[in-house]
Amino acid sequence: MSSTQSNREKYIYSNLKHYYPRPLELKSGLGSYVKDIKGNTYLDFIGGIVTISIGHNHPRVKRKIISLLEENQIQHTSTLYASEHVGKAAKKLVSLAGLEGYQVYFSNSGSEANEIAVLTAREATKRQLVVSLRHGYHGGTNATLNLCGHSSWKFPHQPSSNVSHIEAPYCYRCPYDKKPDSCSIPCADDLDRLIETCTAGEVAAVIVEPVMGVGGFIDGPKKYYQRIYEIIKDNGGLYISDEVQTGVGRLGENFLGASDFGISPDIVTMAKGLGNGVPVGATIASSNLIKNLNGKTHFSTFGGDPFQMAQVYEVLCEIEDQSLMNNAKVMGGELKSHIMGLKAKYPYIGDVRGRGLLLGFELIKGDKSPDSDKCNDLLELCLGEGLLIGKGGLRGNVIRLAPPLNISANELEEFKLKLSRSLEKLNLL
Description:
This protein is of the alpha/beta class. It has 13 helices and 15 strands. The chain has two domains: 11-57 and 324-428, Alpha-Beta Complex (Aspartate Aminotransferase, domain 1), CATH 3.90.1150; 63-321, Type I PLP-dependent aspartate aminotransferase-like (Major domain) (Aspartate Aminotransferase, domain 2). Strand 11 and strand 12 form a beta hairpin.
């Protein structure tokens, strides 16, 4: 056993599991590739954990961080002191998101961003109940774990805090046995039924992922989200768009996933790809809502630190300057078409879904039931081919793909070859 593994087993929380049965220790990364301690190279098609948006150790980011170090720029200030980097990052973020009249609260993670979003919604509406979706995931802190729609993420002794759940737009496993083309979206109307029967009629907000990340990249129909928006607004609540995984142009059409539906959220949360690996979260809310927080003290110790803000700014500029949203659309379309072709070849590939470079496919048994064992086998086989992919879903049977937004055509071809080889081997197990 290596010293790394020994120290982890002895000193790190035992419930923090590895992705692989034989722990993979990564040491370096460049662009779309990473290397382990033995020097083996892997094509990273999960982007850390849906986090690497412009590639590992991007030269633009490296140059900026090195220059800050050489200038002895201060590394920690929080928002208690002024810093040019905070304002520049916030201005660029609001501009790209198309949210003029909104303001940003920088924190350290998606969990913290969603905590602040819920706090903002409750104070603005003077209501407490927040509605989330089954299969949804919004973080690992107290409020966000309550929002979670997966039993595997919930702890039995953690107190609940004014949260209710409604049906998700999980068309492949529709609880109403509907078909998307002829569906009247009863899953969305579940919000109306919930408010009428299970509440006092007052809801602070609904929180929705445009594509459900941990839930297995569930990508519902446009009319579902539009109906949810209509219902929550009719009932005086706010619409929170959790863009922790879908934001920063990953879906290919717009900077925000909510914009794909023609929705202008009251509050937006972001993290992951926003900083290309640096710990950062952002809550973006209308300035009219934020006024309701005045008079109370609240801040994040490391939120808005100069180095992470400088990195956020450079990441956002790179995405804009290099038209990486368009690259996500083009490469993502080709990737999805390829996987659809594999679905026709391998009967254990079920639903193929997602948009842009946030794509997933289910592995199933003959009766369409989830096959988590086959999913684990495919992860191992891909690892042997030098390919890193992710998994998710309530039953752990969904392959998740989220390469950097600047993935090249050659890298995409390499992925196709490695995945095809892995599926051929899986077919023989």
